[in-house]
């Protein structure tokens, strides 16, 4: 004999999944007889198990799969969810589903330098400069240069042997080399009979956008999911002169 699969199954995210995006779309394989999907979702496992919270009712579309979202979840939470398949024309009219769970990440990632491919390749160096704009460009800017690497850039011998302490994940970091003496020549243009040059300013900076092409994946809302603080890991050359270091958001020091 054949048994008709009437209960929801094959959840996505999978049961006990971790680092699930805050804007996840929940999906599952629908029960065969479902006319409505009742979704119970909460951080309270008991409330979902006992069905003491109001469900979200989702009309069945008639296909093999169903979905709900995107959601707007909080960071660092475990969510429990259950799908009850309902058909008022059947007896019984409700098929209760299993309770599944997933966990959201503890923090948002502003930029993951492990994602810039092989740090020794020209492709990776071009990719990071497409996102992080340093001072070596044809505008009045600063004498800064940025790369992604697992070791110190050989073009800056004073950094030889000075590498980040790798507090997070693997071993790649963004290296930011700078010189604030105002003598760095950014570029020279020659139009006979005159030659023009531009010197760097007495500061060095890099910048990245939060929207548009080649922007930071974190987006513009850094408070999403209940985020309250920015954590920045950095490591400098102990032989440097003392200089002020700060972060600018929207053009203002913070």
UniProtKB/TrEMBL annotation:
<protein>
    <recommendedName>
        <fullName>Fibronectin type-III domain-containing protein</fullName>
    </recommendedName>
</protein>
<dbReference type="InterPro" id="IPR013783">
    <property type="entry name" value="Ig-like_fold"/>
</dbReference>
């Amino acid at each position: 004999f054949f048994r008709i699969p009437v209960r929801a199954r094959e959840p996505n995210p999978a049961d006990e999944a971790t680092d699930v995006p805050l804007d996840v779309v929940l999906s599952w394989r629908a029960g065969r007889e479902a006319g409505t999907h009742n979704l119970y979702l909460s951080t309270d496992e008991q409330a979902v198990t006992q069905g003491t919270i109001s469900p979200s009712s989702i009309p069945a579309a008639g296909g093999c799969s169903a979905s709900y979202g995107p959601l707007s979840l909080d960071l660092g939470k475990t969510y429990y969810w259950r799908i009850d398949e309902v058909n008022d024309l059947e007896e019984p009219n409700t098929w209760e589903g299993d309770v599944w769970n997933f966990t959201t990440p503890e923090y948002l990632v502003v930029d993951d330098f492990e994602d810039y491919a092989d740090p020794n390749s020209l492709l990776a160096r071009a990719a990071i400069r497409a996102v992080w704009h340093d001072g070596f460009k044809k505008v009045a800017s600063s004498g800064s240069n940025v790369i992604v690497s697992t070791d110190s850039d050989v073009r800056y011998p004073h950094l030889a042997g000075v590498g980040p302490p790798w507090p997070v994940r693997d071993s790649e970091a963004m290296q930011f080399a700078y010189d604030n003496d105002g003598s760095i020549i950014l570029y020279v243009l020659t139009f006979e009979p005159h030659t023009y040059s531009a010197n760097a300013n007495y500061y060095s900076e890099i910048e990245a956008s939060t929207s548009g092409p080649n922007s930071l994946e974190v987006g513009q809302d850094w408070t999403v999911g209940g985020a309250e603080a920015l954590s920045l890991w950095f490591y400098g050359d102990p032989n440097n002169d003392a200089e002020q270091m700060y972060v600018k958001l929207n053009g203002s020091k913070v």
